[in-house]
Amino acid sequence: MTVTTETLAPPAPPAPLSSDELRELARRHGLTVSGARPSLPAYVRQLWSRRDFIAAFATARLTAQYSQARLGQVWQVMTPLLNAAVYYAIFGVLMDVRRGIPDYVPFLITGVFTWTFTSQTIMTGTRAISGNLGLVRALHFPRAGLPLALALQQLQQLVFSLGALVAILFCFGEFPRWSWLLAVPALALQTLFGTGLALATARLAARTPDIAQLMPFVLRTWMYASGIMWSLAHLTHGRDLPHAVIVLLQCNPAAVYIDLMRLALIESFHGSQLPPHAWPLAAGWAALAFAGGFLFFWQAEETYGRG
């Protein structure tokens, strides 16, 4: 038998598939790009299906937050109370900004607790991705679940701390009234607002970690412009300030939520001048921040955990 070269020659390799053919083959077998961003409705459905994980993650983080401290969860209440004591000594006593503000201690305590909730919610966003890279790289899930869980953790902490706030209000003669029910929608709107900013800062900090170092300075500046230690109405009264500055101070979202909480909880605050259309303004800020922050975060879904 004669063996020719043609008999031993290997078969010619098949022609490579074109990009369109590969795409069609993957579509036919239900394959998708790893880490690809789903559509917005699909993304929302994925988040809703993982609501139990988001709640459990928030609760676990809250439990572990002060696990190494001797006083444990007591620090959830002690931190804003100590801040309020320092602010009272500096601004209320030394600078005497309490003049003209009835019930200054309830005024100050309510402002501190409300602001602490907003600022801590925003700060958690800076650590949502970078602080959970192992989870992000190991598992496939909608990444918005992380800042949402951390925002929920802050809400749980606030609910725990409200007991101390109510006790302090009792000590200064503030007792439950029908107006206290207004605190519920005020906190709901504030939660949406803070969560939206947490989503936005989560994306920014995932790309630029230095945001986490810059944010405390931004928040501290914002705090001083939010009327926590003093009344913005008294601050602007009789001063020759540009009209634009007065409008910005009145429409400051943090100040609006603080004033709504004071309006709900402090009887002597009922006669204070709130910004025009305070409730629509609070609702508008909440809707704008949450919708904008959620869309902003979702647009970079496929980039988180890479690099």
How would you characterize this protein structure?
The protein is 66% helix and 0% strand. The chain has 307 residues and is an all-alpha fold. It has one domain (43-294). Helix 8 crosses helix 9, helix 9 packs antiparallel against helix 13 and helix 13 crosses helix 14. The termini are far apart. The relative contact order is 0.13.
Proportion of beta-strand residues = under 5%
Number of strands: 0
Q: Using the alpha-carbon principal axes, give the shape.
A: elongated
The largest pleated sheet is described as: none
Please work out how many helical segments DSSP would assign: 14
* C-alpha end-to-end distance: 61 Å
Query: Structural class, please?
Result: mainly alpha
Radius of gyration: 27 Å
- Helix content estimate: 55-70%
Q: If you average the pLDDT, what whole number results? A: 82
- The stretches of 5 or more residues where confidence is low (pLDDT under 50) are none
> What is the element string, with H for helices and E for strands?
HHHHHHHHHHHHHH
Number of domains: 1
Please identify the oligomeric state.
Answer: single chain
Helix and strand topology:
Elements: H1 5-8, H2 19-28, H3 40-49, H4 51-65, H5 75-94, H6 104-127, H7 133-138, H8 145-171, H9 183-207, H10 211-224, H11 232-236, H12 243-251, H13 253-265, H14 278-298
Helix pairs in contact: 4-8, 5-6, 6-8, 6-9, 6-10, 6-13, 8-9, 9-13, 9-14, 13-14
